[in-house]
Amino acid sequence: MNLPDKGRDVGELLAEIARMKEADLPVRGGKVTAYVYDTGRPEVHEAAARAYAEMLEVNTLDPTAFPSVVEMERQVVGAVADLLGGGTGIFTSGGTESIMLAVKAARDSRRVEGRPRMVLPVTAHPAFHKAAHYLGVAVDAVPVDPVTFRADAAAVEAAITGDTVLVVVSAPSYPQGVVDPVGRIAGIAAARGVLCHVDACVGGWLLPWLRAAGAEVPPFDLSVPGVTSLSCDLHKFGYSPKGASVVLFADPALRRAAYFASASWPGYTVINATVQSSKSAGPLGGAWATLQALGREGYLELGRATLAAARRLREGVAAIAGLRVLGAPESSLVAFASDEIDVFTLSDEARKRGWFLQPQLSYAGIPANIHITVTGVTLRGVEAMLQVIAESAAAARERGPVRLPEGLVELVAGLDLEALDDAAFGELAASVGVDLNGSGQPEMAVVNAVLDALPADRREAVLIRFLSVIYS
Ligand SMILES: Cc1ncc(COP(=O)(O)O)c(C=O)c1O
After folding, report:
1. Other CB atoms within 10 Å distance of the CB of residue 12
2. Which parts of the sequence carry N6-(pyridoxal phosphate)lysine (predicted)?
3. If you measure from the C-alpha of residue 202 to the centroid of ligand 1, how many angstroms do you get, rounded to a whole number?
């Protein structure tokens, strides 16, 4: 950035932001089936934006200085606890932070002989691996059922050791949208004296409304015996602006173990409920206003529309030759795979037609697939979406599997990334047609095919380098 000598006019700044956003995927309208959550009701997003701006400059760092933060947070956390079986909680910036706090609380509330360990199904979100990495906890990953994709309770039980501080289940897990056997696994954890976290980042503010609309949803919240904490993202199916999640604890002592205080310096006293210290109350204001603007009726209506769209999508995809839906999701996340069609090419073909369908790499015996998050706005365009999936599948079938330059995978697998600087990595990517200049690249099939052929640790090393290059 060239820092201007003289301050510039706001109109000019907004015009420049609009230009920077030109290549962005649209955040409204339902054609982007990941990352964004649209109610289809602009007035709700407008209310959230205004409340967000109203709270923007309030710092949640000191709740005694800004009592509005306490009042608002108690209301928002209270609403989540009322819907999800009680408990006491913390408002956080997102699923990852909620999970980080649940892992910290588990680690600090049970002293074990060795390194603290956590048991998770392979379908659990990477936020748990991140928390483990940051907090020095070891991960014991266990397989899921190869047909239902739900966590295997017996495998979880067998993985628990004397050093296990936490067992994790998802409601639902993101990759296939299925709900793990929460009751069984929480019961096993309780019998072994281990805490159990339900990752309901996706489902917490979704499954109750789907259930009310007629979906079969098994019990998954804090009312289930043995469940000791739960994360619920309001910036997903709560439809709040980003930066909004709640972590609930069954026991107030566990919430205290998530907190942090420091008086070990000569400055102001630090009391933090979250990982972040100084932070804007904007997201809290946005979440509070969204809950108020939609109300119970609004969420019920969104739940009905979401359920109808998810059912239609599952049935429509299953009817397209060569595609199959993975598992039987209770939620509104739908993943489909194919033995005949390259799903990465299908995703690129959809992108050419103006739709973003999220590709997922193969892992732990689960095939590569396309993942769609059905939201409140999907129903209006579900037939158009199915049409695009059918056309993109036909085009991908015609194009055949991605043909990678000979030796490319071996080359990437054997790369000494330490010896390669960012510029050389960028050149290497360009030589196989991948532009890392940060301008939205719709043709991703080659990249995905290369990543798909690599083991997870190589994928991670390449992805970190990729991030470093696009920000250099
Ligand atoms: C099941 C699940 N848990 C946790 C997360 C992490 O949430 P966030 O991206 O808000 O940190 C996600 C995100 O998609 C998720 O799907």
Report:
1. 10
2. 236
3. 7
Average pLDDT of 223-246? Answer: 98
**For residues 393-422, average pLDDT:** 89
Residue 93 CA: which ligand 1 atom is closest?
10
Backbone torsions φ then ψ of 18, nearest 5 degrees: -60, -40
- Locate tokens 């052929």: which residue? 453
Task: Taking the CA atoms of 428, 434, 440 and 446 in sequence, report the sign of the dihedral they define.
Answer: negative
Q: Which residue minimizes the CA distance to atom 16 of ligand 1?
A: 174
Q: What single letter denotes the amino acid at residue 449?
A: A
CA–CA dist 23, 424 (Å, integer)? 26
- pLDDT, tens digit (0-9, with 9 covering 90-100), for 243-262: 999 999 999 999 999 999 99
Position 416 scores a pLDDT of: 86
Q: Whose CA is nearest to atom 7 of ligand 1?
A: 95
- Main-chain phi, psi angles of 229, to 5 degrees: -155, 160
Is the preceding peptide bond at 442 cis, omega within 30 degrees of 0?
A: no
Dihedral, CA atoms, 120, 232, 165, 275, nearest 10 degrees?
A: 110
Mutate-to-test residue for ligand 1 from 149, 173, 174, highest number of ligand atoms within 8 A of CB: 174
Buried b / exposed e over 60-90, threshold 16 CB at 10 Å, is: bbeeeebebbeebbeebbebbbebbbebbbb
Among the atoms of ligand 1, which is closest to the Cα of residue 203?
A: 1
d(CA 111, CA 132): 16
DSSP H or E run through 255: helix 252-258
Ligand 1 pocket, residues with Cβ under 6 angstroms: 94-96, 125, 127, 170, 174, 199, 201-202, 233, 245
Residue with CA closest to ligand 1 atom 8: 95
* E strand or H helix that includes residue 182: helix 182-191
User: For the ranges 188-202, 265-279, 321-335, 421-435, which has the lowest average pLDDT?
Assistant: 421-435
361 — pLDDT class (breaks 50, 70, 90): very high
pTM: 0.97
